[in-house]
Specification:
By secondary structure, the chain is an alpha/beta fold. The chain is built from ten helices and ten strands.
Length: about 290
């Protein structure tokens, strides 16, 4: 992969094994253990519990939140890193007490409308730069030297070399253990949920209840009979016994797919759908919104 600089063409090993071999070639005195497993809620305790520090380098949003929530719950320091197109982000979450700042203080919920690197692309140099900055934060923390990024978010743009250091404050005060235990952290794109195209919805719109889960600052009506139920405030129990065919929509179809999946787990007999590709799908099509 062009953005992951330790891998080369013709690589036959898994990514974890190849990275372990790369590190051993640099310094044979380093003890590297490659774990050939995908991290999940089922095995995260076996992989991370009692570690001195976690450097979070995943490129899956739900995995980032799972690792963050677990590390904060278990009081494990975590170096956070993320990239998006031409920008990178780094912070240190020390997690030494319940009031420590962590990822949810910066971004309370995963933004499922944000495309992945494979969907939108990323300039290759940014991943190397952010990885080096994460390694630097890890070294400073473990050696107890310098000024670390605890309570701060470093942002870096490769197009103009702008670098900002934002001071963070505690804003998220819910029960992190309850949050971890209640979340599946499943990637929405992998879930098999019923979808309906806007074209099919239009042809029978009188047969459906249309529900927007968009927040107030992004809401757009797509039908004259729209019902509002913002995702941040929606109560799934209110919809778990819905007796009318219902279509939920958001901007891209990812958040609405998540809602549909959660509702079907509560009641598999519901006649509910996620609007395929969401409102952006309507914008990109030649169909007009029905007023």
């Amino acid at each position: 992969m062009h953005r992951q600089v330790v891998y080369k063409e013709g690589e036959t090993s898994t990514k974890s094994a190849a990275l372990a071999q790369f590190i051993k070639a640099l310094n044979s005195n380093v003890n590297v253990i490659a774990i050939e497993k995908m991290i999940s809620k089922a095995n995260i305790s076996d992989l991370l519990e009692d570690h001195d520090l976690v450097i979070e380098c995943t490129d899956d949003m739900m995995t980032k939140y799972m690792v963050n929530d677990y590390c904060h719950w278990k009081k494990i320091p975590m170096v956070y890193g993320a990239i998006y197109k031409f920008d990178g982000y780094v912070s240190l979450f020390e997690n030494d007490n319940d009031q420590s700042i962590h990822l949810r203080d910066v971004f309370p919920e995963p933004d499922l409308d944000v495309p992945s690197c494979s969907e939108i692309g990323v300039i290759n140099s940014i991943s190397g730069l952010i990885g080096m900055l994460q390694a630097n934060e890890a070294l400073k923390y473990l050696l107890g030297i310098g000024e670390n990024l605890s309570g701060k978010l470093l942002t870096y743009n490769v197009l103009n070399n702008d670098q900002l250091k934002l001071k963070l404050k505690k804003t998220w005060n819910l029960d992190i253990e309850a949050m971890f235990n209640s979340q599946s952290y499943a990637e929405v794109s992998c879930l098999n949920v019923p979808e309906i195209s806007y074209e099919d919805l239009l042809s029978n719109i009188e047969n459906y209840k249309v529900v927007s889960i968009l927040e107030d600052n992004e809401h757009v009506d797509i039908s004259i009979s729209n019902v509002r139920a913002p995702m941040s405030t929606i109560n799934l129990d209110d919809w778990s016994n819905e007796n009318q065919a219902t279509v939920f929509y958001c901007m891209s179809g990812k958040r609405s797919a998540k809602i549909v999946e959660q509702l079907l787990l509560k009641n598999s007999m519901l006649d509910i759908y996620s609007l395929k590709d969401g409102f952006k799908g309507i914008q990109n099509s030649k169909l007009k919104i029905k007023n």
